[in-house]
Recover the amino acids of this structure.
């Protein structure tokens, strides 16, 4: 079983060790790849590896820091267990990044339409359509990251929980869920969102499970929920 975690600092401290600790907690479940992306100003620092978490840890630059990040333990359903297929996945223009649990049943038709519109793909996963659809929604005029996510949700068939970050909307994580669990945690220092309470242990004082079909926008100051 795969797992996802996202953390936003509320006090400017780096979230990297919290995220890697959360991934470690999620590792008691089976997985075949792991990855993390953190935002530093206008840049994303993304690292991902097939196989066990230790492969990712060995590949990380020791100086990686950031106040906002998302990460994933992958259990491959579409595409083999390779570095390229591990999450996170970026949009064609590298502006949107996503981690995803679940299956998108209609990804082939979504991918075909995106290819016709000039988007390109690097992985064999179903997931990679999500960041590209969000990039497209933003280009089509969505006025916020959460609006772009809400615009694409009617297009998705299947089960999912996913987390998104965008260079255009720094230090924000948008979370969406349909028939897959996502738990939100809060402490005075950080907001955390993860696919299991196990990932939030020690990182949050209060937790709440998101409702099905819920979309949540999280930044350092607030959490906003949309249905
Ligand atoms: N379907 C996606 C993939 O194969 C996500 C799998 C998962 O839930 O880890 O990459």
């Amino acid at each position: 079983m795969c797992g996802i975690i996202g953390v936003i600092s509320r006090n400017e401290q780096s979230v990297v060790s919290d995220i890697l600790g959360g991934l470690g907690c999620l590792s008691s479940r089976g997985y075949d790849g792991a990855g993390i992306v953190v935002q530093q100003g206008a840049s994303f620092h993304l690292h991902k590896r097939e196989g066990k978490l230790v492969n990712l840890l060995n590949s990380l630059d020791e100086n990686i820091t950031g106040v906002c990040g998302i990460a994933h333990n992958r259990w491959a359903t579409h595409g083999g267990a390779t570095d390229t297929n591990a999450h996170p996945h970026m949009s064609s223009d590298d502006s949107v990044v996503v981690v995803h649990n679940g299956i998108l049943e209609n990804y082939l038709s979504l991918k075909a339409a995106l290819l016709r519109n000039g988007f390109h793909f690097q992985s064999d996963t179903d997931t990679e359509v999500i960041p590209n659809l969000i990039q497209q929604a933003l280009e089509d005029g969505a006025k916020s990251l959460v609006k772009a996510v809400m615009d694409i949700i009617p297009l998705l068939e299947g089960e999912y929980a996913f987390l998104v970050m965008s260079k255009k909307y720094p230090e924000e994580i948008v979370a969406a869920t349909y028939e897959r669990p996502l738990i939100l945690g809060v402490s005075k220092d950080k907001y955390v969102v993860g696919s299991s309470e196990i990932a939030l242990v020690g990182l949050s004082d209060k937790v709440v499970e998101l409702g099905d079909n819920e979309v949540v926008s999280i930044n350092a100051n607030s959490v906003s929920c949309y249905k």
About this structure: The first helix runs from residue 16 to 26. The two ends are 27 Å apart (CA to CA). The mean pLDDT is 95.
